[in-house]
Structures are given as C-alpha cells and as structure tokens.
Amino acid sequence: MQKLIVQGGNVLSGNIKISGAKNSAVALIPAAILCDEEVKIYNIPNITDRDALTEILEYLGAQIKIDKESMVINSKNIINREIPEKISKKLRASYYFMGALLGKYKKVEIYFPGGCNIGVRPINLHLKGFEALGAKIKIKGNKYEIVADKLIGNNIYLDIASVGATINIMFAAVKAKGQTIIENAAKEPEIVNVATFLNNMGAKITGAGTSKIIIEGVSWLSSCIHEVIPDRIEAGTYMIAAALIGEKVKIEGIIPEHLEALVSKLKEMGVEIKEGNDYFVITKTKKLKSVQIKTLGYPGFPTDLQQPISTLLTQCEGLSIIEETIYENRFKNIKYLNNMGANIKAKNSKAYITGPSKLVGKKVEVTDLRAGACLILAGLIAEGETVIENIEHVLRGYENIVYKLTKLGAKIRVE
Ligand code: EPU
C-alpha cells in the first residue's frame, strides 16, 4: 500500500500541463480492436488504468508499442478468448471490450467490470443496446457471454444518457449491417473523441456530442493516427487547487469550453480566472462565496469534480449545497474532510457544507479516485501534515500527480 504525505500551506505557482483524458483513453484503447489494421494514438496518459487495458489487449494477443508520446496497437492477430475476472475487475472500462469484441468478432466472454465503488453502476443499458442489435446474452454468475449471428442496425433509446452505454453501443454498431440510431445518447466530449477515432478509421458516425448519434455500419476499418483530448477533470482538479492556494497558476493545454460548468461556479464563488485559447490562470481569492452545485451529464457540472470541489466549498463563507444526481454513493470523502475540520452534513443525495473551516492535517484514507483528489486538495491547505493512505486509486486516473504538484511548489511525497 502506498501513501502520500502532504505538508499543507505551501503556495502553488507556475505552469501545469494537462495530460490526455482518462475517460477518453480508456475507451480508445479497446476501440483499437475494431480496426483491421494498426492504429497510433498520441497523448494517452501514463496511468494504471492504461496499464490494465494494455494487459487485456496483450492477453488477447495484440501487439503494442508504448513510448513517451504515443501508443501503437495492432490487433490483427487477436485471439478472441474469455477475459479473466482477475484483469477485467481491475477497472470499470474493461466493459468496453464487450462492445469492441462483439463488434469485431460477434462474440465476447468477459466478467463484470471493476472500478470505483461509488454506486451500484449497472450495465443494463449496454446490454439492452447489444440485444437490440441482435446479440444474445447469457449471464453465468459474474460472467457475460454475448454472441450474435449477425449484428443489424436498430434504433436504441437510452433511459439514462450513459457515457459507457453510448460508447459501447457505438462499438457494437460500427460494423453492424445498416443504420443504428442512439437516442438520448450521452454528450460528453470523450464520446466525441471516441467517435472521431472511429471515423478516422473509416466509420460513419454523425451526431456525437448531441443526444442523437447515427451510425452507418461499415465492413472495414483502416489504419489511422489519433490524439486523446485534454483531461477536463484533471484540469478541473488543478483549477480547484489553484483557487485554494494558488498564485498565478497557469493550467495549460486545455479546451476551455469543456470546463464551462466549473468556470461558471468558480466565478460565482468569486475566484478570478484569466482565460486564454488553451489555458486558464487562477489565483486564490481572499473571500469565497458559498454556492449550490448539482451534478449532471455534460454540459452540466461533472460528477467527477463533485468531490474535488467539496474541498473548496469548505473554504466558502456560509452554506454551500451539493446535489449528486449521478451516483448514489459518492460522498465517502466527507467523513475524512470532517475529520480534518470541515463542517459537512450529508443526507440522501445532498451534502450541506458550512464554511469557512480551518483544516488540520490528519491520517485519511482514499476510498475512490476522486475522493483521493479531494483529500489531496485538503492536504494542500491543511495545517501540518496529512497522511493519505490507499493512493493506488488516485494513480489510476491522475498522471504524475506528485511530480506535477511538486513542480507547482507543493510539499508532497509518496511512501
Ligand atoms: N447507468 C445505468 N445503467 C447502465 C449504465 C449506467 O443505470 O447501463 C447509470 C449509472 O449507474 C449512473 C449513471 O447511469 O448512475 C451514469 O453512468 P454512466 O454510464 O454515464 O457512467 P460510466 O460510463 O460508468 C463514465 C466514467 C465515470 C464518470 C461517468 C459520468 C469511464 C470509465 N467512467 O462512467 O468516470 O463519472 O462516465 O461522466 O469513463 C471517474 O473518472 O472518476 C469516473 C467515475
């Protein structure tokens, strides 16, 4: 078990370059299977979720070359065999092998995915989509066997605009016969990035980024080069760090439109933000106003920034309220923030945060990826030393977080 030790109170300043988006990369890597030739993807973040997906690809027999800038994947000689539970449960995104293998080989055997324990997280909508395209699904305990004689395009309405289901159905439909329409599709930028990757290979997908995605099936997908978009959640996390204890922190290499919901909330609190074409410069403000935040699908406020921003809300004057509408169990960070001196009450899907509170370094435990980010942010402003245990969760999704924060002036180390 690794832990992080953060010495609080050190002002952050300087530039920070944002990495490729985790939630794009974790779909792009399995998507490479759909290509009948080799693909090259730039800007894949060096995170342990990438390593787990690479392990699955290698297990299936794909050839992979990774260097500092890019990842080359050749899936030509893949053997489509059962993906063992030991590797599928390392992360949530292993479920993208369902759509990718089904789309390419009309068959997949895989176990239920893992990932952060932040709610029930069913995959019924993914399965409903596969069935609508003609697949038959057998569930044996924790294992899924999904088989289709042929995949035929269909109209699929998603009851919830699910990111995972939207992407997985695109994967299964891209080589299906005829047209598939996904209604009430999720609109996250990562979905656009994935659809662009498939289109670069020769797929015919339109409407990604809107709630109606149309996919005309094709029979062959060719070699292409692609780039992962910047990680808006990583960027948002560092923007919050800058608002907490920054002096002209420049967060660069971003797409500002992807962060509009966060920017609008930060401005409402009174945070000063200077915006450029691909950067923000943020400095801590003396007095922060309390706000209300409700998590929603894109372009609403992202659930993945809900836990990180709760640390900032502990520093706002008065009562702030967070309403989490995506996951039932994404408040596990609150117990630890309260141990550090915050005043937060959680009831059902809402957290009531009264501030400002002085935070004091304590021993805390990371329960999930974004809870980890929240506690690191708390450690940065706390008095004294914060010991953060179980940081493996954080390393799944934040590239070089210790190096990046150290470069900005934080006193943080891994033990
Ligand atoms: N849902 C269903 N049935 C389904 C699919 C989803 O009921 O078949 C529900 C979920 O339980 C949840 C809601 O729909 O309540 C939204 O889930 P969604 O499918 O959109 O989430 P996901 O695909 O499992 C991805 C990211 C999450 C991020 C969400 C929302 C990946 C690997 N994960 O999850 O990222 O929170 O979209 O934006 O891309 C994170 O990075 O910390 C993280 C959890």
Describe the structure.
It is elongated and about 60 Å long. The strands form six sheets. Strands 21-22-1-23 form a four-stranded mixed β-sheet. Strands 2-14-16-15 form a four-stranded mixed β-sheet. A four-stranded mixed β-sheet has the order 4-5-3-13, covered by helices on one side. The chain contains 14 helices and 23 strands. α4 (96-105) packs parallel to α6 (163-173). β21 (363-365), α12 and β22 (385-389) form a beta-alpha-beta unit. It has 415 residues and is of the alpha+beta class. It has helices at 22-31, 48-60, 85-88, 96-105, 124-132, 163-173, 189-201, 232-245, 260-269, 306-313, 333-339, 369-381, 392-395, 401-408; strands at residues 3-7, 12-17, 38-42, 63-66, 70-74, 107-111, 136-140, 143-147, 155-157, 179-183, 204-206, 212-216, 224-227, 246-252, 272-275, 279-283, 292-294, 318-323, 343-347, 350-355, 363-365, 385-389, 411-414. The model has no long low-confidence stretch (mean pLDDT 97). The protein folds into two domains: 3-18 and 230-414, Enolpyruvate transferase domain (UDP-n-acetylglucosamine1-carboxyvinyl-transferase, Chain); 22-227, Enolpyruvate transferase domain (UDP-n-acetylglucosamine1-carboxyvinyl-transferase, Chain, Alpha-beta prism), CATH 3.65.10. Uridine-diphosphate-2(N-acetylglucosaminyl) butyric acid is lined by residues 22-23, 26, 92-93, 116, 119-126, 160, 162-165, 186, 188, 303-304, 326-327, 369-370, 397.
Structural topology:
Layout: E1 3-7, E2 12-17, H1 22-31, E3 38-42, H2 48-60, E4 63-66, E5 70-74, H3 85-88, H4 96-105, E6 107-111, H5 124-132, E7 136-140, E8 143-147, E9 155-157, H6 163-173, E10 179-183, H7 189-201, E11 204-206, E12 212-216, E13 224-227, H8 232-245, E14 246-252, H9 260-269, E15 272-275, E16 279-283, E17 292-294, H10 306-313, E18 318-323, H11 333-339, E19 343-347, E20 350-355, E21 363-365, H12 369-381, E22 385-389, H13 392-395, H14 401-408, E23 411-414
Parallel strand pairs: 2-14, 3-13, 9-10, 17-18, 21-22
Antiparallel strand pairs: 1-22, 1-23, 3-5, 4-5, 6-8, 7-8, 10-12, 11-12, 14-16, 15-16, 18-20, 19-20
This protein binds uridine-diphosphate-2(N-acetylglucosaminyl) butyric acid.
